Structures are given as C-alpha cells and as structure tokens.
Amino acid sequence: MVVLEAAGLSKHFRARRGFFGGDRGNVRAVDGISFAIESGRTLGVVGESGCGKTTTAKLVLGLEEPTGGSIRFEGQDLHALDAAARRHYRKSVQAVFQDPYASLNPRMRISAIIAEPLTTNERLTAGEVRGHVLRLLDLVGLPNRSADLFPHEFSGGQRQRIAIARALALSPKLVVLDEPVSALDVSIRAQILNLLRDLQAELGLSYLFIAHDLAAVAHMSHAIAVMYLGKIVESGEAQTLARAPKHPYTQALFSAALPSHPEDRREEIVLSGEVPSPLRPPPGCHFHPRCPHAMARCGKQAPALDDVDGRLVACHLYGASTAAAAA
Amino acid sequence: MSLQTEAVGLPSRFDIIRIEGFPLLPVLILGGIAFVAIFANVLAPYDPEIGSLAARFRPPAWQVGGSGEHLLGTDHLGRDVLSRLIFGARVSMVVGFTAVIVAGVIGTGLGIVSGFLGGWVDQVIMRITDTWLALPALTFAIFLTAIVGPSEMNIVIILGAVYWTRYARVIRGEVLSLKEREFVKLAIVAGCSKRTIMARHILPNVLNSAIVLGTLMLGVVIVTEAALSFLGVGVPPPKPAWGLMLADGKKGMMVGYWWLTVLPGVCIMLMVLSANLIGDWLRVKLDPQLRQL
Amino acid sequence: MSTHPLLQIDNLSTHYVSARGTRVVRAVDDVSLRIDAGETLGIVGESGSGKSTLALTILRLLPPAARVASGRMLFEGEDLLAKSDAEMRRVRGKRIAMILQDPMASLNPLFSIGDQVAEPIRVHEGVGRAAAWSRARELLKAVRIPSPQTRLLQHPHEMSGGMRQRIVGAIGISCEPRLLIADEPTTSLDLTIQAQYLNLLRELQRAHGLALIFITHNLGIVAKMCDQLAVMYAGRVVESGPVRQIFNAPAHPYTQALLNSIPRMSDNRNRLAAIDGQPPDLVALPPGCAFAPRCPSAFDRCRESPPSQLTFGDQRTVRCWLADAGSDAADSQVRKGAA
Ligand SMILES: Nc1ncnc2c1ncn2[C@@H]1O[C@H](COP(=O)(O)OP(=O)(O)OP(=O)(O)O)[C@@H](O)[C@H]1O
Ligand SMILES: Nc1ncnc2c1ncn2[C@@H]1O[C@H](COP(=O)(O)OP(=O)(O)OP(=O)(O)O)[C@@H](O)[C@H]1O
Ligand code: SF4
Ligand code: SF4
Ligand SMILES: [Mg+2]
Ligand SMILES: [Mg+2]
Structure pTM? Predict the structure, then answer.
C-alpha cells in the first residue's frame, strides 16, 4: 500500500535582493518530481548539496506550500484535508532534521522536548509522560538523567539521538529523516540505523530517508531516488541501483564514495566543470556541462524520466533512439 | 590527584579571563542610585519639596558661604539640593524602569506576532512602526503630553508609547530568523498551535535581546524624561525630577550658582552612561560566544 | 626554534562544571597531542567523547560552564592559555581558524552571507569593503557554491545545509591561517562536492603549509586526508599514531570495534556491526578503563584501575592494559586483538 505519493511536486523560491532591488529570478529548489513511499518501506533520496532534498522533506511535512503538484497521504490530497484529517496527518508524519544544534529549543529541558508531541496530541498524566520519556531515552541510548538537562549540555550526536527520540514519541506512520545520522559516529550510526530498521519491522513505519552516506542509504532503503538540481534523474530498487547505477551523475556519485582504508584506493570519476546554479539551470539536460558522456543533443533537449530495464532514468544515453549508441 | 577540587573550588588563572570586562563601576553606580531611590525617605536629610526662603542659594558645604547643614547647597526656593537629588533618583528610576518595561512588553509582543505570523498582520504592524520611527521622539512625546497632560503616570505611558517601536523592530528581525530554525519547524510538525509556539519557543529565545535592548533603552528614556521635565512638560513640580532641577537651575548658571545645574546633570549623565555600558556588556555576554570567530 | 611543533598540547583537561559545582563532566581528560606545520591530524571518536570540546579549548571559545582544569597548549611556542582576550582575538581567525560543527552558530542570521564572509578579511587584513567582497566571491567559488554573486546577498536561512557548511569553511580559510581546525566540516556534503572540498583543503595545505586538525566520524575521510590519527573515548586519547599503522593494526579494542562498524556498500540487509552497550556517562565514569563495560577483552585489572598512556613503536601511543605489560606476551595479545 502506498502511504504517501507526490506528483509533479515543485517549489520555487524567489531570490530577491539584487544590488538595486532587482529581481534575480527563481530558485527552482524542487522542479516537478514524483515519487511514492510504500507502507513499511524506505525511500532513500540522495543528491548533490542544494539539489532540493530538504525542500522536498519540508513539502512532505507541510512546512512549505508547494508551488505546483500535489501530495496524497493514504490516498487523500493534502490540500483537501479538513481540520481533523489534518491533525491525523500531523500525528502520523514526524521528522528528524539535519542540524542537531538547531533542532532542539535551547530553552527547554530534554524531557519537555521529547514529550512535546505527546503532550500536544494526547491526554496523559505527568507520570505517564515521564515514563514515555525515559523509555524513549533508553531506546536511543541516553542515560535517564539526560531528561532534566538542557540541550547545550550535549554533544552533536547526543542531540541527534534526542531528536530521534522525540520523533518516535507518537509512533508515527511516516518519518522524514533528513540526514539523521550525518552527525553521528560510525558506531552510534550503526546503532541508530539498526534501531530505525527494527522499529520499521516492528511498527510498520515508512521512512523518507535523506542522506549523503551512500552506504547507509543503500543499507536502509528499499527504493532510491537520485536528485540533481531539483529533478529526479534516476530512481528504482535500491540494490540494483546502488550496484549498477545508470545515470552518469549517479555513476559519478557512487564512484566518489571514499574507500574506508588508506590502501584501498579505487577509481573515482571526478566531475569537472562548475557546479550549476538552481538560479540559472543549464538548458537541456541539467547535467550536461559536467557529464562525461554529453552529446550535442543534451544541451538542447531535456531528457524525460523513462523506464530503462525496470527503473526510471532521465538520460539521452538510454533514450529509444540512442540506446544502440550507448551499448 | 585533586584535579576535581582544583577545577571546582579555587578560581584558577583560567577563571580570571572569564570575568574580564565585567562593568563593575557602572553596576555599582546604577545599584547605588537604585539603593538611594529605595531608601530616599531615610537617606534624605530634608523634605525635598519644602524649603525656607531665608536659606536661598546656599552654595555646597566646601565653598565659601556653604555650611554642613546643606551639603550640596540649596536652590532658589531654599530647598536642599541633596535631598532633591536623592528623591529625584526615585523619580528617574521609577519612570525609567516602568517606561522601559511598558515599551518592552508592547514592543516585544508586537514584534513576535508581526515576525511570526507575517502576512498582512506583519504589514500593518510594520507600517505603524515605520511611521512611528519617522517621528522625532521628543517632539512626539511633547505632543502627547500636550494632549493628556503631565503626570508621572502619563509620562510613563507616553514614553512607553513612543519607544515600543525600537523593540518591535529588533525583535521582529530576530523572530524572522528564529522561525526558520529547525526546532520551530519541528514544533509545527508536532502539532503545536501558533500561540504555543510563540509562547514556548519564540518568546524565551528573544528574551535575552529584549533585556539587552531594555538596558540600552533605559538611558534613552531617562534622557527623554529629563528633557520633558526640563521643557516643563514632564513630571509636574514641585516633585524633584532631575530634568526639572536642571531647568530650574539654568537661570542661576550665569550668576555662578553652578551646583543647581551641574549636580543634576552629572547624575543624569552617570545613570545614562552606566545603563549603556551595562547594556553593551550584556549584549556581548548574552550573544552566543562563538560568533566571535 | 624550528624544533617546535606548530601546536603542542600537554596533559590538557577541560571539565564542564554544573552551576553548583556538584556535577563535573570530564569532557577532555589528560590529552596530549602535537601537530607540525603542513600536517593533518585526524581526531575520531564516539559522539560525546570530547572532540569538539578539545577544539574549542584550543581556541579558548569554551562556554561559561567549562573550566580548563590543567594542561598547557603551545602554539608556535606561545602558551595559548596565558594570552589575554585581546591577544586571543588576534590569534583566532588569523593564525588559528576553526570551522565549527554547528554552522548556524558562526553565522549571524540577520546579516547577509557577503557581510559575514568579508568581515574577517576586513578585520584581519585591513582591506576595503569592495576588495573584501570580491575576495568573498572568490572564496564562495572555491568552495563550489554556484552563483556566488547572488548568494552573497542572501541570508543564511536561504542556504541549504551543505551550503552553510561550505560558507563557514570559506570563512575559515579566508585569512590563510597557520592551523585550521575543522569540526565535522563535511557532514552535510554529498560525495562529489566533499571530494572537491577536500581537494581544496589539500591544495591550501600544499601551497601554504597549512596544518589541519580534522575532527570527523568518517573514517573514509581520515583514510584520504590524514597523516596522524588520534582516537578519543570518554574524553581521553586512547590511541594515536600514523593513520596507516592504526588502520592496519589497531591496538586498542575500541579502535578495533570502530573499524569494524563501518557500513559497506555490499552487506546490505544484514545488521550493521555496532559496538554493544551504552556510551559512557562522563559524569560517572567507571573506576578503571572507561571502555571496560563494553570491551570484549576486558579482564579484572581493567575494572580496577585506569590504564596509563603507553608509547610504542614509531610515535604510537595506546591506553590499554593489554599493551601495558611490556612483555612479549602482552604484545602478542595486542596482535591477536588486531587480527
Ligand atoms: N527559504 C528559502 N529561501 C530561498 N531559497 C531557499 C530557501 N530554502 C532553500 N532554498 C534554496 O533551495 C535550494 C535547495 O535547497 P535544499 O535545502 O532543499 O537543498 P538540499 O538538497 O537539502 O541540500 P543539502 O544537502 O546541502 O542540505 C538551494 O539552492 C537553496 O539555496
Ligand atoms: N555546556 C556543557 N555543559 C555540560 N556538559 C557539556 C557541555 N557541552 C558538552 N558537554 C558534554 O561534554 C561531552 C563532550 O562533548 P563534545 O561536544 O566535546 O563531544 P564530541 O566528541 O564533539 O561529540 P559529537 O561527535 O557528538 O559532536 C559530552 O558528554 C557532553 O554531554
Ligand atoms: S542526457 Fe546527456 S548530459 Fe544528461 S546525463 Fe545523459 S548523457 Fe549526460
Ligand atoms: S584496558 Fe582493558 S577494558 Fe580497557 S580497552 Fe584495554 S582490555 Fe579493554
Ligand atoms: Mg538539506
Ligand atoms: Mg562535536
């Protein structure tokens, strides 16, 4: 069953503030993307910094209004929800963000931070709330005494665990994880990823998992979507995509994964050329100025996201007419 | 090893670094003025509002013609200057602090609402603020007193009404950036109402700025109060306000009665300067240290 | 003079003390390190093991609750702890720069990116506004931020997480410091940009003899960037030495566990190898070795008294009783653990 489905989703930000107040055009942070997240499964999203992953997460969370397109939750368009359904949606979708320092209100105690979703949405006695808080702290591996401390007394990784505890407080259906483990060390990262997977198996949670750590994404996800400059350029089943990426950008991305041993060097596709700007995306295929396989056609015509061997790829290399050339 | 006691107990040389820059003198001065204001009844040797015409224009004790009876001399009605200064501290403190609090509450409240809600609410509040700020503060205050008439209470309200805009501006700016922070986004995701978010997540995080602004505003408010009194539209006589004393004394300046103007002037200056120095220190202190980088 | 290392830290301890002095968090405990010009020192360790605190201590940017309890830090032969605040301000940014773990803490939300990148250039180099802004644009370009001209006019909240991180990086390198402390500078960067960014740091290092302290969770980055490595656990350096040697034969059981828990692209749906047990509570450390409750090779002695730092081989140190006996037996036990 599909929990959440996005169709043609876009978000454009206005970039004002030219030196003379002139309008500098739009940042096309998210530009017409479509994806679906199935119940109990994980959709991993990877892509270059600034390609619109966080913006996508915010759209799903209802923190930004889409410029275009729609999101359906359990079959219902978010736009059409009434107040009660909207509350249900809020309870069912929780989030963990990238920046562990900004995620916790510096003026609140940890117990209040973790309990906030509970106290806002459910009627519980103080004792019950406390019990929940301690259980959640335990779940993420923090000592009980943390409950009465303030965020500044914790390191980055510890804060992120607090944020995860809070997100799990309401037993949500979908958790948006925006780089939840970037700030954690490998060992705790492994613990948290294991924890997230156990919870998924136990509670049937779905995840929208955004990360830069490709190994972690491959490990966590059932499906992966690769974004480049606001668009999805490749998506499909996680394992096949990770093992044999088809889009040239995905190939470069996965080849850049650093070896984890100094003597374990491997071939790296170094992308040359300027990183393109979402303010002035290149014409045609957005990737063509940096693509090692670019053809004349790539600078003129944007490739469509088409089915290639059971997955979706947006690249002229795999278009019907050029399939032979690619082979 | 007694590392632990060393770290907790005796201040080591590492601790001295931390209190460097503490504005000890300003705090002492402001604290002293507050002390004097509170215990004015006990400290003042004479009634500040009643003088004896026989003892007019007595110079301070150390000058020729002065006496220990009136340490800082007397004014044109024979009232004891020291007593008037002491009670004047009370007027300045009460008017200054209350006006700053009134302005702070209005300004911070509107700043938060304006910044957080945005949209037309923001538009309206900011238009008003801009108009307000365009008016010269003193003229505006005089105009308002002309309407409602001078009294201590009215002065407080007027000063509050004139100066809230400074808070609104600064606090709104702060709120604009705060509401982009993840913890506010997460509060929305958790289902908190806008009111809860403003009270629980925004207000405590702008309080520091409001306090710093308050200390800096204290100086401005006291000067304005003094100016209003000086111009005769402030605290009504015979109440001893420093500004009023300054105004009364200015005629005597020419004939050598310097103490009637210099002494209240020095008091105003000390208070304003102290408030500003403390405000500056607080601003550095309460700002996350790491911005020093 | 030339025998000085660029930065030498001896027996440094930094504690966080609660308001009433009843709770002492020993965030950095008896740490000794050294780094030479042009060298890169990696610091890895569990979350909460005191890496950021160590970095903030070096720059004397600790929050009010922190106390430097003991130790000495010599930078180019000068004692950093003896400097006045004013002297320290001249060191920061110009001679030692830092990329903070929390980019938003070093960016003021109310000012434009351009103002903030240009600021240290104007302060330390005394150049005019226009020149500083054009330098700022070059820097944004160097850290691969597209459309730098427009970005300079935007505010921090309009940037993506990775952009903020690179902007803080640009500020860090803006005055060509002698030492750059980078606290998790690449956590929000994708791999292609991360690779370019790391290359940029390398180039700077080659061109100016910049020394780098790289705090990271990413052992891949350590492998690629660092010459020396220090592994921290519960506020202490439990192992240090040349990167290759440590990767090939980790001596401390924690380092061994750390190297084992790296997720690999291939082992997908199995469980990741995590280190069992909870990270230690720095307020109530066990009397013996802090790693003992989680250590697979712990024996009685470990639970009784803490191991002291032992130097062996070529510049390697380790804090573990297994390595302490000095006898061949103990040595072979370390080997066994490493295998
Ligand atoms: N509030 C905003 N106002 C203007 N532009 C914005 C805003 N938020 C994001 N953007 C722009 O949208 C683009 C996408 O940003 P987003 O945060 O979604 O990237 P991301 O993929 O999450 O990147 P990262 O991996 O660095 O976190 C960027 O160019 C960013 O500058
Ligand atoms: N202001 C503070 N008051 C009290 N304790 C603190 C404070 N700041 C940090 N700590 C504690 O000090 C220890 C070390 O924190 P530090 O931030 O140095 O860890 P870290 O190694 O950088 O971790 P991470 O990798 O998660 O960033 C932690 O246990 C933390 O809880
Ligand atoms: S469409 Fe052309 S430029 Fe774009 S990725 Fe494919 S080959 Fe490269
Ligand atoms: S000292 Fe003992 S407990 Fe500590 S790491 Fe060594 S073997 Fe393990
Ligand atoms: Mg992001
Ligand atoms: Mg840290």
Answer: 0.79
